[in-house]
Amino acid sequence: MHRFSLRKDHLWCEQVPVSKVAGAVGTPLYLYSYGTLLDHYKKLQAAFKSIKPLICFSMKANSNLALCRALAKAGAGFDVVSGGELRKILGIGADPKKIVFASVGKTEGEIEAAVRAGILCFNAESVQEVQRIQAVCQRLGRRQMVILRLNPDVDPHTHAFITTGSRANKFGMDVRTVESILRRAAEFPDLELGGLHVHIGSQILKAKPFKEGITKALQVADRARRYGVSIRWLNIGGGLGIVYRRETPQTAAAYAKAVLPLLKGTGLRIILEPGRFIVGNSGILLTKVLYLKESHGKQFAIVDAGMNDLIRPSLYGAYHEIVPVIQNQSRSRRRVRYDVVGPVCESGDFLAKDRALPPLKPGDLLAVMSAGAYGFTMSSNYNSRPRAAEVLVKGKIWTIVRKRESYQDLVRNERIPAFLR
Ligand code: LLP
Is 59 exposed, middle or buried (0-12, 13-18, 19+ CB in 10 A)? Predict the structure, then answer.
């Protein structure tokens, strides 16, 4: 499943002992396995090989240039949601014809940049957005494919914050709105309304909700043909769940087995937009124990990574396994329950609560597992903490793919006004 393993009580990433990298680069540190990243991309590709979909890696999960470049070289396309992601991915030579642009709030500037770049399509989320894309295309004299994001109103049975395809969510459009746009296709002469998009949420463990969403989209596609609109593309989104703890998510093969019967024979070209499935298990966050303390009978392990580095536990109550990087057999049988907390001044700043770990001491290195997706990309400078470094491991080679931020970086864009000098 991933290429992090214990060898003689030491955690290794591929052919590199993790402690060696932490010693050289310092902590907190994101460490990624190139092999694991590519394995997951290829697993999905293999599962769907009978229909050769366009797999657009969802950059919001991890937009590190080196990782994106590795996926681009393997043939992946990209799902971008901002002008920033678009700039980053074009900058590393990704093929614009494999880029899809989602987001409920694309600005005119972002739309223009994407049209000029010649992206494959926008995933449009409102009538007004479609009108704006039309206006931009008319002004630029360009033709552009737009696919309409349907909100199919299905429950993906995941965390409320990452549910996106039910009626309470801001995402997509209801069936009636999508169909009304398709009927009025003539009002958008510079757009090719060539497809539909459904993405119902993230960390989804079962195939059923995916099937429900796809079925609804296919019904709309059928009706659209009746108004003479040719729907050629179907983007079935991302959302595949991964193992963080004891989850038993569907494998890529099981997912494909469940949805392929719906897709085959439709003549539609399929787009997938996975983020977490590809990169989630490929990365870990390394942190060092600074202090241990007992307070009111509770044990705290205070570490040098906080909620600014990995916000998932604080924001979603997410579980990430924590593994000591060097495990001393003689003391490993005893377990202490720790709250593993960061240095940030918030009680919500924790990486784990009440977690059974071997007795820790200051200086011990801990690996927070499965932190490759929505780890670094959601990190911030809260408490004026420089963001972590990122390292990519491939076989015996490890290399820094993002420098740790410096204190200079923290103040780079700030100015003291003249009246305060
Ligand atoms: N496509 C669209 C339109 C999306 O909104 C997302 C994720 C994806 C694709 C990729 O989903 P994935 O395959 O990674 O599940 N920060 C949260 C996850 C937010 C997901 C946002 N949208 C977390 O850390 O769990």
Answer: buried
| Ligand 1 midpoint to CA 222 (Å) | 28
Q: What share of the chain is helix, strand, coil (3-state, %, to 5)?
A: 35, 25, 40
DSSP, res 404: P
pLDDT at 1: 73
Active site residue 137: no
pTM for the model: 0.97
374 touches ligand 1 (CB under 6 Å): yes
Q: Which residues of the chain form CATH 2.40.37.10? A: 4-31+280-411
The closest residue, in CA terms, to atom 22 on ligand 1 is 202
Domain with CATH 3.20.20.10 in the chain: 34-279
Q: How far is the CA of 133 from the centre of ligand 1 (A)?
A: 24
For ligand 1, say whether the CB of 201 is within 6 Å of any of its atoms. no
Q: What is the CA radius of gyration of the chain?
A: 23
Domain 4-31+280-411 top-level CATH class = mainly beta
Q: For 271-321, how does the pLDDT look when each residue is reduced to its tens digit (9 = 90+)?
A: 999 999 999 999 999 999 999 999 999 999 999 999 999 999 999 999 999
171 vs 139: which has the higher pLDDT: 139
Domain 34-279 has CATH 3.30.465.10: no
Q: What is the mean pLDDT of residues 17-35?
A: 98
State in Å: Cα 112 to ligand 1 middle.
24
Is 70 exceeded by the pLDDT of residue 79?
A: yes
